[in-house]
Design a protein that fits this description.
The protein has ten helices and nine strands. By secondary structure, it is an alpha/beta fold. The longest helix has 19 residues. It is elongated.
Length: 265
């Protein structure tokens, strides 16, 4: 049996993670030992009576900055206990998280996630600890706890056995660089809206082709950036040609009826 991946979360609010780590597939993965998530309270590594973890920024300015000492001590305590390979700081300044990065991070046996707060973390933490910075999007939250949860959940789906049917993972949006195809369930017709006939006819090859074409169509419409520089299979090129032809037909003006033509004469 493979050793469980270990993720250490360094946070000022470990209580936020309890319900998250005990629910749904992630909760089962943790309970079954497929994944270990350990919580470390950064305040435990503060050295003064008030357990201070922040201070005013050098140079002035609003807000407070998380101090070096408690964070260095917290991460170094983890390195003393296990073979910690990677340290990730959740920060809006970081590289934007992608599915490719999630799959890469899931290969590390040990990972530490640092949740920032206040105006940010002293710059020397990332430099001195060799940490990388990751962002879950171009917006700002009050802390790194929710981004850490996003990353933990995304990584958990990449671990063998967490999701019972691996095909559910391979058809996720972004798994192979495309958005996911539309999904439907019963009833076949609801308020005049019907499930596409191909999905009800039981032809698995036709269904697979339809889903691939729809994934390409939706990606082309909503996230064309994902298609730039992509290596296409012969089937993908054929499906894209079909989509181009369909788009061209929709752009053509509707033919005028005979009455309209006579008026023009």
């Amino acid at each position: 049996m493979l050793a469980a991946m270990r993720i250490d979360v360094l946070t000022l609010f470990p209580e936020l993670f309890g319900p998250f780590l005990s629910a749904s597939l992630l909760g089962k993965a943790v309970a079954d030992g497929m994944m270990r998530v350990e919580l470390t309270n950064i305040r435990d590594f503060a050295t003064d009576r008030r357990r201070t973890v922040d201070d005013a920024p050098f140079g002035g300015g609003p807000g407070m900055v998380m101090r070096c000492e408690p964070l260095f001590a917290a991460v170094e305590s983890l390195r003393d206990r296990n073979s910690l390979e990677r340290v990730v700081i959740l920060s809006p300044r970081g590289r934007r998280l992608t599915q490719t990065m999630v799959r890469e991070l899931a290969q590390a046996p040990d990972l530490a996630l640092v949740c920032g707060r206040y105006e940010g973390i002293d710059e020397r933490v990332a430099a001195g600890l060799g940490a990388e910075e990751l962002s879950i999007g171009d917006y700002v939250l009050s802390g790194g706890e929710l981004p850490a949860m996003v990353l933990i959940e995304a990584i958990s789906r990449m671990l063998p056995g967490v999701v019972g049917d691996w095909e559910s993972v391979t058809t996720d949006s972004f798994f192979d660089g495309l958005l996911g195809a539309p999904q439907y369930t019963r009833p076949a017709t609801f308020r005049g809206l019907s499930v596409p006939a191909v999905l009800r006819e039981g032809n698995h090859a036709a269904i697979a082709r339809w889903r691939r074409k729809e994934a390409l169509r939706i990606t082309r419409e909503r996230r064309p950036d994902l298609l730039v520089g992509r290596a296409y299979t012969k089937e993908d090129r054929a499906l894209l040609a079909e989509l181009e032809a369909e788009s061209a037909r929709h752009m053509e003006p509707e033919p005028k009826d005979q009455a309209e033509k006579e008026k023009e004469l």
